Amino acid sequence: MLKLRRAIVLDAGSAGSGGEQELTIELVEQARGSDREASQSGAGTGEQGRRRAAIADVGLVGRAEVGDELVVNVEARDLGLGSGGFDIVHVNLSRGLDADEDQDPARPVPPNVMKLNYTSLQHTVEPVEELGDGAGAAVGVPGRPVAVLALHGQLAPVAWAFAQALPAARLGYVQTVGGALPGGHSRTVGSLRERGLLAGHLTAGAAFGGEGEAITTVGALDHGLRTLGWDAAICGPGPGIVGSSSPLGHGGMAALDSAHAALALGAPTLLVARMSSGDPRARHRGISHHTLTVLDLLLEPVTVALPAGMRSPVGADLRAGLGAVFGGALPSRPALELDVERPARITRHDWRRAIVDLLAYAATDLPAETMGRRLTEDPLFFGAALAAGTALAELVGDADRGEDGVGEAERSVAPPGTG
Questions:
Q1: Where are the chain's structural domains?
Q2: Is there a contact between 204 and 214 (Cβ–Cβ < 8 Å)?
Q3: CB count in 10 Å sphere of residue 354
Q4: Among 61, 91, 208, 378, which is 20 to 30 Å from 138 by CA?
């Protein structure tokens, strides 16, 4: 069952430029006597444990104000999940029961496609598959490449490195399942849009709240690359990741479906390798088992990028390459065990090398933390993502020159431009 509780809003922040509003609340069950009256008037008691952080998706439940009575889902915070340190507003009882039902005159036929369908948060969207020239047109976006993420934390370094190599190119983002579903939950997307590093943001499948809504990932990619005119796309989950320690039970497996969608459209496809030199879990050190599993299961070869100077993503070659590539960026501590089992089928993919500039990326003030580790604590994670952004730009160049690039393993990638 849903773990729902009543709460009172003590402090209501603005939603900013995104779709979420940050709140401070107090659970009604915790308020007694004069405390309840103080809560309802907006004055919190300030005692430890009384005040809780919450977020509201404004597009779904509207804006909240101080004193509003809410129903919140407390499950993630009570479980102590790393990416769920807050309660989620389910409904605003003070003002959320009077939603405007007037029909928009600009839409004589209201949309009838549901997202989060058959849940209590189902809502209608106008799918991008029905917009522009997508309806009934030939399917396919040959030559326009797609980078597939394993984690949302790779989005910023991929987009930044791509822009350094191709400053005038239009790069879009398709958010999929695997992490947070609300499009407004990503601060990274907002920052990249403000800086002009992303040309658009579509949410696909169960993900919602982007600048455009797609029923499917393949529909979102087709719309972005063909109708919106993106030169390339990044496709991957929102913040956080659903996971277990099992080989197939994690949000990173969404990359398999996303890569197949891109390949089916004829798009040159690059898998952004999840790599780490600082993760305490052996299964994610070197190249993560998440990436290895996807590379092993893919039905067709894809491109994968490594930082220049790194001969192999596993074993002794990786250990030797870490010092050569990242040098002083590596903290002084005992060497990590980086040996992982290497599936034989990963050799069929197009492995490329790209020069990365960690210091330049660190100076941008873009997100530089993964799973609580800063760039200097896990340079390989960011180095692999930066290499992927530069390699994605090269795939755009390959298309302009009429090349597909596949099968040219171990080819070096030109260093990105400055700026």
A1: 4-92, 130-413
A2: yes
A3: 26
A4: 208
Over range 64-87, report the average pLDDT: 85
| Closest C-alpha to 145, from 38, 48, 230, 74 | 230
Contact status, residue 183 vs residue 414, Cβ threshold 8 Å: no
Residue 95 exposed, middle or buried by CB count within 10 Å (0-12, 13-18, 19+) = middle
- At 364 the three-state DSSP class reads coil
pLDDT digits 0-9 by tens, 101-153: 555 566 667 788 999 999 988 998 999 998 865 555 567 788 899 999 999 99
Packed helices 379-400 and 315-326: angle between N→C axes, nearest 10 degrees? 90
Angle between helices 254-264 and 289-297 (to 10 degrees): 40
Quote the CA–CA distance of 82 and 133 in Å, as a whole number: 42
Backbone conformation region of residue 240, classed left if phi is above 0, alpha if psi is from -120 to 50, else beta: left
Q: For residue 133, what are the CA distances in angstroms to 106, 112, 139, 180?
A: 20, 20, 11, 30
Say what the pTM is. Answer: 0.85
Q: What angle do CA 174, 178, 184 make, to 5 degrees?
A: 55
Q: How far apart are CA 74 and CA 90, in angstroms?
A: 10
CA dist 35 and 26 (Å) reads 10
CA dihedral 254, 255, 257, 259 (to 10 degrees): 170
Amino acid at 13: G
Provide the H-helix boundaries in 62-186.
75-79, 155-165
Q: Rounded to whole angstroms, how far apart are CA atoms 155 and 149?
A: 7
Residue 148 phi/psi, 5° resolution?
A: -105, 120
Among the listed residues 148, 157, 199, the one whose alpha carbon sits nearest the alpha carbon of residue 390? 157
Q: Count Cβ atoms below 10 Å from residue 220 Cβ, excluding itself.
A: 31
Relative orientation angle of helices 155-165 and 379-400, to the nearest 10 degrees: 40
Counting residues of the chain whose pLDDT is more than 90, the rounded percentage is 53
Tokens linked to 268: 């040159």
